[in-house]
Design a protein that fits this description.
about 325 residues; alpha+beta; Rhopdopsin 7-helix transmembrane proteins; 2 domains; about 65% helix
């Protein structure tokens, strides 16, 4: 065997080993841990989904919630169809790779749409904030889609002399894919700073458990996705050509879906809990209390609930009876 043949064989072995590692992390069903995590998350949140999401009227967040919740299963089927079959031609491998690439960006865009809607709700339906968020959302995600398209055009598959191998990209332009994650990281950072600004400028005098949930979940979302996006940027810039550049991609896709859908359920759960506490304590919405009220958008106990309600109220207590008086209200049927 010549030196050139030995080098080619070593390259194939390295590529196969790299692809195996990526499949262990990225292909549902190939990793028992990831499969069990998805099943556990679904089963854990399904009763809450039935209680808080199914009875609600149709809305944009509800459509996004169910689209993400169940399309992610289809997405992982596409991942399996790319990562597990062997003996495919380069054209077949490329088609499957492009399919999962487009599917991945669609999942991320839908997940971030929920994040942007939350920020709009957090602002009290401020029209200027809405216009800016729409412009940022379109600019960043359109740019990310363009970069992803150019990246997919650089991915090359070749026919290897060894039969029955899984699909292995022979060459890619990791800088393009790194640019996609850089844009997603920038989007999350900007949105987080907007939430911080709104919290200190508009809601710093509020004392509400629901406001705390809005803020705390947003920060947790920011930290998790920032860490993963940064890791993907480093991997894409530092890793050699081949499948290793995709090591953490599907992990970030999964986390986008889990965090965005859980945040919606968490908010609606706390809203319903506050509503029940108000009913128990006979709190009437006639006065003022420095708080933010958020209600789910379905009828419970015969009482229609609004989508999102921001209220400044003042607590007035007279001999054990608590009454409240509104000083300003904004309603939104977003979430």
């Amino acid at each position: 065997m010549s030196a050139a043949q030995k080098a080619a064989l070593q390259a194939i072995i390295r590529g196969y080993r790299t692809t195996k590692y990526v499949n262990y992390l990225g292909v549902a069903g190939h990793s028992a841990v990831r499969c069990l995590t998805k099943v556990a998350d679904f089963l854990h949140t399904f009763p809450t989904e039935v209680q808080l999401m199914w009875p609600t009227p149709l809305s944009v967040p509800k459509v996004l919630f169910f689209a993400l919740r169940y399309y992610i299963l289809i997405h992982h089927i596409l991942a399996v169809l790319y990562g597990l079959p062997t003996g495919r031609s380069p054209e077949q491998c490329r088609t499957a790779f492009v399919r999962i690439g487009i599917s991945s960006i669609l999942v991320v865009v839908a997940s971030e749409a929920i994040l942007f809607i939350r920020v709009y709700a957090f602002s009290g339906r401020n029209r200027k904030v809405l216009i800016y968020l729409i412009l940022q959302f379109l600019a960043i995600h359109a740019s990310a889609f363009v970069l992803l398209t150019k990246f997919l055009q650089t991915v090359k598959f070749v026919k290897f002399p060894i039969p029955n191998l899984v699909c292995m990209p022979a060459s890619t332009n990791g800088h393009m894919l790194g640019g996609v994650f850089a844009l997603l990281l920038a989007s999350v950072i900007i949105v987080m700073f907007i939430m911080i600004y709104i919290a200190f400028r508009k809601h710093r005098d509020f004392n509400s458990a629901l406001l705390t949930i809005f803020y705390r979940d947003g920060i947790f979302y920011f930290i998790c996705l920032s860490v993963l996006a940064s890791a993907n940027i480093v991997v894409n810039l530092a890793a050699p050509d081949g499948g290793l550049k995709f090591l953490l991609v599907q992990t970030e896709i999964d986390l986008h879906v889990i965090l965005s859908t859980r945040m919606l359920l968490h908010l609606r759960g706390w809203a319903e809990r506050e509503r029940k506490n108000n009913d128990t304590n006979n709190v009437k919405e006639t006065g003022t209390m420095g708080a933010m009220e958020y209600s789910t958008n379905y009828r419970a106990h015969g009482r229609p609930l609004s989508g999102i309600k921001f209220q400044k109220r003042e607590l007035i207590s007279t001999r054990g009876q608590v009454t409240t008086t509104k000083t300003g209200t904004e309603d939104s049927e977003l979430v």
